[in-house]
Structure formats: structure tokens, C-alpha cells
């Protein structure tokens, strides 16, 4: 049995956790934390614990099933803690763990980027859609969408 130096162990760990490899466990974790409901649940819990019913009201459009699945997966991953209080009716609260709180700066940065660049992305989508639509009388120019995109880029 060969003894590895610390540098060799770190190199082996980098290879073992390479998200570009199909079998890498980090890829599964990236898939989980990049889910839109995960990011919204994490930011909803940023200010402190919430009941599931409160989360359901706060996260417009989230079905009960999707919210339950998301919370269970986050609890399993150690990102969210579930606390049951034996009252009538039973009270269930969800809160971020230390691990979950460590994700907040990353999620907040992505959320902020999405909110501040939405207009530019929408203009780019419009320009793309216009440029790639079926040609009407041979015209494939993005026309006004390209002007809108230029205006957004110049003001941002």
C-alpha cells in the first residue's frame, strides 16, 4: 500500500470531485442547488424559520407537492432543518442550517444578477427569436429587437 503525500491526496480529491465527470457526486449537488425552487426557498428562509404554509404563501406558484419535495431534499442534504412542535395542530418549522446559510451569498448574488439583467436578457431573447423565426418573405433581420438590446446595454 502506497502512502500519499498531502499534495497527492488533494490532487486525487480534485479528480474525484470533478463536476464535469458524469459520475461525480458534485454534479448531483449542483443540480439540486441550481433548481429554481431551491434558490427561492433558501432566500425565503434567509430571515429566519418559517412554517410550510407560510412558505407556500410566500412562494407564489409553488405547488404543495413541489414545496414538500424541495424541503425534504434540502433537509436530506443538510441545508434545511425541520422542527416539529407537538401542538394542536402540529407546527412544523423550517430553518436554514449553517450549511444552508453558507449558500446564501451565492444564491443572493445569482438572484441579484437575474433581477438586474432581466431587461437585457429579454431583449436578447427577442432578438434571437426574431432572427431565428421562419423567414417571412425572406426577411431574417432582428429589426427593432437589436435596437432595444443596444439601448439596454448602453443604459446598464
UniProtKB/TrEMBL annotation:
<dbReference type="Pfam" id="PF01638">
    <property type="entry name" value="HxlR"/>
</dbReference>
<feature type="region of interest" description="Disordered">
    <location>
        <begin position="132"/>
        <end position="156"/>
    </location>
</feature>
<dbReference type="InterPro" id="IPR036388">
    <property type="entry name" value="WH-like_DNA-bd_sf"/>
</dbReference>
<feature type="domain" description="HTH hxlR-type">
    <location>
        <begin position="24"/>
        <end position="122"/>
    </location>
</feature>
<keyword id="KW-0805">Transcription regulation</keyword>
<keyword id="KW-0238">DNA-binding</keyword>
<protein>
    <submittedName>
        <fullName>Winged helix-turn-helix transcriptional regulator</fullName>
    </submittedName>
</protein>
<keyword id="KW-0804">Transcription</keyword>
<dbReference type="InterPro" id="IPR002577">
    <property type="entry name" value="HTH_HxlR"/>
</dbReference>
<dbReference type="InterPro" id="IPR036390">
    <property type="entry name" value="WH_DNA-bd_sf"/>
</dbReference>
Amino acid at each position: 500500500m502506497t502512502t500519499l503525500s498531502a499534495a497527492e491526496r488533494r490532487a486525487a480529491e480534485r479528480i474525484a470531485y470533478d463536476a464535469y465527470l458524469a459520475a461525480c457526486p458534485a454534479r448531483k449537488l449542483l443540480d439540486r442547488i441550481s433548481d429554481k425552487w431551491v434558490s427561492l426557498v433558501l432566500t425565503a428562509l434567509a430571515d429566519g424559520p418559517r412554517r410550510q404554509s407560510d412558505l407556500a404563501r410566500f412562494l407564489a406558484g409553488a405547488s404543495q407537492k413541489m414545496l414538500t419535495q424541495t424541503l425534504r431534499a434540502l433537509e436530506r442534504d443538510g441545508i434545511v432543518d425541520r422542527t416539529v412542535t407537538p401542538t394542536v395542530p402540529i407546527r412544523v418549522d423550517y430553518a436554514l442550517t449553517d450549511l444552508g446559510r453558507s449558500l446564501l451569498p451565492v444564491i443572493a448574488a445569482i438572484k441579484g444578477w437575474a433581477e438586474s439583467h432581466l431587461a437585457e436578457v429579454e431583449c436578447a431573447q427577442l432578438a434571437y427569436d426574431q432572427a431565428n423565426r421562419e423567414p417571412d418573405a425572406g426577411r431574417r433581420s432582428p429589426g427593432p429587437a437589436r435596437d432595444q438590446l443596444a439601448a439596454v446595454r448602453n443604459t446598464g
